[in-house]
Specification:
By secondary structure, the protein is of the alpha+beta class. It has 6 helices and 9 strands; from the N terminus they run ββββαββαβββαααα. The strands form 2 sheets. It has a 7-stranded mixed barrel. It is extended, with a radius of gyration of 26 Å. The chain starts with 8 loop residues before the first strand and ends in a 16-residue tail after the last helix.
Length: 284
């Protein structure tokens, strides 16, 4: 647990009349990002983006720039900082749990950014541990709202190891419905023999989850290219893997299995969990 980590937000969790003083620490490290600038191909100088008025065709300084909402074509309402202040949600600094729901009921696409939750002070240790273990034993997550950076977000509270994690969530109106997608209906479009082979192929690829098995190989390879060019060297592009077009699904499944012999069931199967681990893994 990040006991010494400096919280970016301090407040409390409340459920019923129980209050737990807490601090939030981002559970995600800033991802390595290679930043690029736009340059003039001719002389390598930076390209500068300027603000032009379409009506007068002149550059506009920041002091003359305002924010406007288009409520009809070509019609805008100009909003000032005072207008935005009127719409801000009061920061109560409390995550009030409104519902406890089964962790398997919430689909992955509702979840956004996770934060570790740490107790703030000795008095918070006991109710923190009680809430964490109660959630773990019940297989439920706590749902409520929280105000972060002057914006109200839905949130889910769940145990991960010895820590509690609060993950901000998207509201229902932010999720697009899949009803207009052109996808086949469930349990249709395949034969029993194809399903049997597909399950066997999945078994050869089944293993326990270890996040360290996966690396961002693209960023590492791109950095090598950048470093080589900076030294005046060139790196040959790797050959693209050749993938045959799938014409016969049964044939593709059989060939895939032939290349990957079935592993021993006792060594490849993941251990069975005694309870749902997190809301982002919805049961089928």
């Amino acid at each position: 647990m990040l006991a010494m980590a400096r919280p970016l937000w301090k407040g409390a969790i409340s459920f019923g009349l129980v209050t737990v003083p807490i601090g939030l620490v981002s559970a995600i490290e800033a991802r390595e990002h290679l930043a690029f600038n736009l340059l003039h191909k001719k002389d390598g100088s930076r390209i500068v983006q300027k603000r032009f008025c379409q009506e007068e065709d002149v550059e506009v300084p920041w002091s003359d720039v305002v924010k406007g909402y288009q409520y009809a074509k070509g019609q805008y309402v100009v909003l000032t900082e005072a207008d935005f202040d009127k719409a801000r949600v009061p920061a109560t600094h409390t995550f009030e749990i409104r519902k406890f729901v089964a962790s398997g009921e919430v689909e992955d696409l509702y979840f956004d950014h996770p934060y570790y939750v740490q107790p703030d002070g000795r008095s918070a240790t006991k109710p923190y541990a009680l809430l964490r273990d109660a959630l773990a034993e019940s297989g439920k997550i706590g749902i409520g709202t929280i105000v972060l950076r002057q914006r109200e977000s839905l949130g889910a509270l769940e145990p991960v190891g010895d820590a509690l994690v609060l993950t901000t969530m998207r509201f229902a109106h932010e999720i697009r419905s899949p009803k207009d997608l052109d996808v086949p209906s469930a349990r249709q479009g395949w034969t029993d023999k194809e399903m049997k082979l597909a399950r066997q192929l999945m078994e050869t690829l089944s293993d326990t989850w270890d996040p360290k098995d996966f690396k961002d190989t693209y960023t590492a390879a791109l950095r090598e290219v950048i470093e080589a060019k900076a030294e005046g060297k060139e790196i040959a592009a790797p050959e693209k893997p050749k993938r045959g077009r799938v014409v016969d699904l049964m044939d593709a499944l059989r060939k895939s299995l032939a290349e990957r012999p079935l592993a021993k069931a006792d060594s490849r199967k993941a251990p069975v969990r005694k309870r749902p681990r997190a809301g982002r893994r919805k049961a089928a």
